[in-house]
Amino acid sequence: MALSGIQIYKLLPQTNCKECGFPTCLAFAMKLAAKQVELSSCPYVSDESKKQLAESAAPPIRLVTLSADGQEVKAGNETVMFRHEKTFYNKPGIFIRIKASDGAEAIGKKVAAADTYTVNYVGMELAIDGFAIEADGDLAAAVKAVREKSKRPLILIGKDAAVLEPGLQACSSETALIHAADASNWEAMAELAKKFKAALAVKSESLDELADLTQKIQAAGVEDMVLDLGGKNMAEWLARSTQVRRLALKSNFRALGYPVIAFPGDAGDEGKESVYAAQAISKYAGFVVMDTFSPEMIYPLLVLRENIYTDPQKPIQVQPGIYEINAPTPDSPVLITTNFSITYFSVANEVEGSGLPAWLLVTDAEGMSVLTAWAAGKFDAERIAKSIKEFNLADKVTNKRVVLPGHVAVLSGELEEELPGWEIRVGPREAVDIPAFMKQVLN
Amino acid sequence: MPIEIPKDKWPGSIQIVTIGATSAEGGTRTQTVTLGGETTLPFMHFEAPTPHAPVVAVEIKDRHPDDWSPLLADAWGSAMDDPAQWAKAAEAAGADLIVLALTLTKADGSPTKPEDAVASVKAVLGATGLPLIVWGPGQAEADNELLVPIAEAAKGEKLVLGICEDKNYRTIVATAMANGHLVQARTPMDVNLSKQLNILVSDMGMPHDRIIMDPTTGALGYGIEYGYSVMERLRLAALQGDAMTQQPMIVTPGFEAWKTKESKVGEGVPEAWGDWNNRAINWETLTAASLVESGADIVVLRHPESIKRVKAAITELMTA
C-alpha cells in the first residue's frame, strides 16, 4: 500500500541536507509520495528504509508474465475492484486445454485450429493466448506436438513434479506456468519452478491454507505465483475471487497478492463453460483455461474481455478509414461519421440494413461521438477534408459527393471551402433515419 | 493463521418490490415475483443473505413479430402466432414472469387499437398465472393510448407498465397509480438520469415499492461495458444510501443481443464467428449473465436455451 508523505519522511535521514535538490526532507518525502522523484536522489537513506520503501511501492497484485518465443501473457498489477474506478489493465489470458493422452495427432489438430484463429472486432484482431497441457500421458511429446503448431505460452498441469519435469525440459527456454502446488506436493513443485524459472500456480479450497502455502513457497525462493481458488460453483468462486482481490487491494495482504487462474472447462458442459468463463473475465481472473475451442464460444468471450478491459475514460475506437458496405461501386454514395465504436456501429448497421451500397468514411475523432467530437473540435471541416485526402477517397468514387451527419450541418459551408469540386450534402441527425434518407434523397 | 476477510457494511439497501397479485391480493396471478432487499453487492453471501434472487422475464409479442431472427421463430414455432400460446410456452421454458410487448400495427398494417391490446393482455393473463409486464409499442402517443385501457381492464393485477421515459411518463404513471400497477422507468445508461427519472416519477406520488428502474444496456460488443458500469455504480450508490437509486433494476439483454449482426445474420459473415445458432445463444446468454453479476434484478430474454442457461447461472449464484 502506498505510504503517505509523512510516513516516508519518517524513513528519511531528516537532516535537510538539500542534496536531493529540495529544501527539506519533508518536501522530498512529499514528492516521493506523489511519485514525482526517485528515492535514489537521496544519498543518505539507510538500506533498511530503502527496503521498506521498495516494499510499499510494490504492486498489491504481483505482475506475472508467461512467455514463449517472444509472445507474452501478463496478469496482475490490477489496482481497482470496479472498472469505473480507474480501469482493469491486464486482460486475462485465454488458454485452451489439451490432454497429453490424446496423442500428437489430435493435439496438433486442436492446437492448429485454436492457434491460427483470429477474429476482427472493431478493427482489432482478437486471438487466444496459449495452451494448457494436462500431464496425463507423455508430456514431453505433447509439448513438442504443441510447439510444432504454436509459439504461444504454455501451462503444464499435473500433480507430480517428476511427471512435469520432462515437459518443462521440452520448453526450457520459456517461462511456463506449472499447475499446481498444493499442501501435499508444494516442496517438490517449488523446486521445479525454481529450476525452470517457471511461474507456479498454488491450489487450495481454503484461503487460509492458500496463504500459508504461498508464504512457504515464497520462502523457498519462488516469486511468481498464481492462485487456483477451486470453488464448487459460481457463487463460491465469485466470493473467493472477490475476497482475494479485496485482501490484496484493501488490506495489502501480500500472501494472496497474485493473479487468479480459473478453469471454466471443469463445468463439463459447453453451455456452462461459456457462462463460467464470462464470470471469470468480469470478476478478476488473470488466466482462463477453456476445454472447448469453438469460434462461436471464443468470439463472444474475446469480445467480452475487450469490453470489460476497455479504459472507461477511453472508449473503444474503430480504425479510421473507408469502410465498404454492401459492395459499393464508384458511383455509390459516401457517408461520413466518427470513429467512436458505438457511433460507427449504429451507422454501419443502419446502412447495411438498408441493403443499399455505400462508402462509409470514418474520420479520426479520437473515439468521440459526432456531437461530442464536434464540440471538442475533433470533428471539423479541416479534419474531415484531411481524412478524405488521406484515404484517397477521390480514387474510389466517380461521384464527388459526401454526406455529413445532420448534427454537424453547420460544417457544410466550411467543408465546401476545404474541398473544392465536391458536393456536400447534409444527412439525418440520427442513424435510424439513414435508410430512408438513402432511399429517398440519394437515389 | 486464519485470514480476516474484509467485509463491506453498507448503510443502504435495495427497495423491495412485488410484481403481480394473487386472488387474495386483488388479482388473478397464481404466483408473484418479489425483488430487492439486498444489503450487499450481488451474491456476496459471506456478507449478508440475498433475500430475493434475480429473475428471468421472457419477452413475447401480441402477434407474430416481423423483424425477429428466424432462429427465434424456429425455437418458439407456431406459439409465436398467438400471445396466449406463446406465454404458455414461455412459462414452460422457465419464465419467472412474462413481458408482453405490444406492436404498433396489426398484421394487416392497421394500427393496434386499445381493444386489441386489452384483448391480448387478457389472453395472456388467462393463459398463465405468472406476473406480467406490458410494454407499449414505444411511441409516446400509442403507448398512452394503449396502456391506459390496459391498466383499467387489469386493475389490481399489479402489472408493470412501461416504458416510462423522461419525455413520456406522466400518463403511464398516473394510470398505474390509479389502478394499482407498477411502472418501468427507463433512462439511457447514465446514473444521474436514472436518479432524476426516479425522482420525477416519485414526485407524482408513486410509492417507491412500485417503481422498477431500467438503466438501459448494450449488448456484448455493442456497449455492454457502459451498461455494466452504470449498473455497478447505481448499485453502489444505492447501498451507500442514496434513496433515489435503490429501485430494483430491469434490463433487456434479449432485445439488445438479438439486434446485433452476430445474432441476426447467419450468412455472409466471417467464418471466425462460428455456428450461427450457438453464437446467437451465447451472445444473449453472456450479455445477460454479465448483467446479472453487475446488479440486474430482472433480465428480459428471448431464446429458450438462453433462458435455461441464465436461470442455471442464477441458481448457482444463489447457492452459497
Summarize the entry for a quick read.
Chain A is an alpha/beta fold and 443 residues long.
Q: What tags apply to this protein structure?
A:
heterodimer, A: 443 residues, alpha/beta, 3-methyladenine DNA Glycosylase II, Chain A, domain 3, TIM Barrel, Rossmann fold, 3 domains, eight-stranded parallel beta barrel, five-stranded mixed beta sheet, 17 helices, B: 320 residues, two-stranded antiparallel sheet
Termini separation of chain B (Å)? 24 Å
For this entry, what is the oligomeric state of its chains?
heterodimer
What class do helices, strands and sheet pairing of chain A give?
alpha/beta
User: What gross morphology of chain B would you assign?
Assistant: globular
* CATH homologous superfamily classification of the largest domain in chain A: Dihydropteroate synthase-like
CATH topology heading of the largest domain in chain A: TIM Barrel
Number of helices of chain A: 17
Head-to-tail CA distance between termini of chain A:
64 Å
Q: Within the largest sheet of chain B, what's the order of strands?
A: 8-7-6-5-4-3-10-9
CATH architecture of chain B: Alpha-Beta Barrel
What would CATH call the homologous superfamily of chain B? Answer: Dihydropteroate synthase-like
Structural class of chain B: alpha/beta
Biggest beta sheet attributes of chain A: 8 strands, parallel, barrel
